[in-house]
């Protein structure tokens, strides 16, 4: 079926076939092709970041494929669970048919996180490190994949007449998504009836691009593992909460008029923002404590080194002083020995000089004592 989409204030006109071709009885749509391309490019982005960060590519590839499978299953189950009135009594083939949409981003994130966490636990890999890496690929996939909503004629907002306003054929959209304001402002172009709406898919794609650029700038400044992933959830939640407010194809809690995606978006933004703020403060405090401990250890080591130097210096001083005292004692001993030798020599000379006198006196006494003849 040929579809025409107009952007009257920009002067753009798009005409395309909803179904491109058929394979084994399955119609391949532009939406399906864009989703596949977005997943492949997102996976390539993850592996590129993994190589840049010098991580194990095999582990990153395994975690990414696991998260991808879990994301598709989780996104589809989430959509079916909150839109059960559309699928009640349908065959399993219809329940599993995702070629034309029917996947919720929050269900996909939840399913991907659960399966990736299980994979990381079994492979003994840091889940938060993988999550920081994966959110880059997720955003790339959202930026590209969101244009599938353009070709699927969904994710548009309430009536608005501005530069980006988009015209859709009334017959090409689901009746439940056409609001009272749209019906009151119906436009007739070339004999057909058109509605004028806001292209929320375009706004969301731009917002995801902005979040991606911001996260890339913060990548080198992260304080703890998982910070980038939490910032992604908070940033996307903020933009999605604003965009979701204007959407007409809302998924509501059963029996209420409360938008499920709006509630989840607000919770994610508030919760993740608080967690990031608290963890950053705690990380800074731990860093300061760690720094003080390091400085204290360095000071203690410096004092111990100074003490060792003082001990060595005192020991050296005592050794030098001991050597000096020993030298002085040796000098004194040598001086005393010399004096003793000199004194002994002097005493010996005196005794030798006195011996002839004594002998002479003894001779005189002997001669004087004899009678004269």
What would you say about this model in short?
By secondary structure, the chain is mainly alpha-helical.
- Which H/E pattern describes the elements? EEEEHHHHHHHEHEEHHH
Structural class: mainly alpha
Beta-strand share of residues? 5-15%
Oligomer, anyone?
Answer: single chain
Give the strand line-up of the largest sheet: 5-7-6
- Morphology call: elongated
Question: Can you walk through the features of this model?
Answer:
A 3-stranded antiparallel beta sheet has the order 5-7-6, with no helix packed on it. A two-stranded antiparallel sheet has the order 1-2. Helix content is 68%, strand content 9%. Strand 6 (187-189) and strand 7 (192-197) form a beta hairpin. It has 11 helices and 7 strands. Mean pLDDT is 82; it is low at 369-373. The protein has 373 residues and is mostly helical. The N and C termini lie far apart (189 Å).
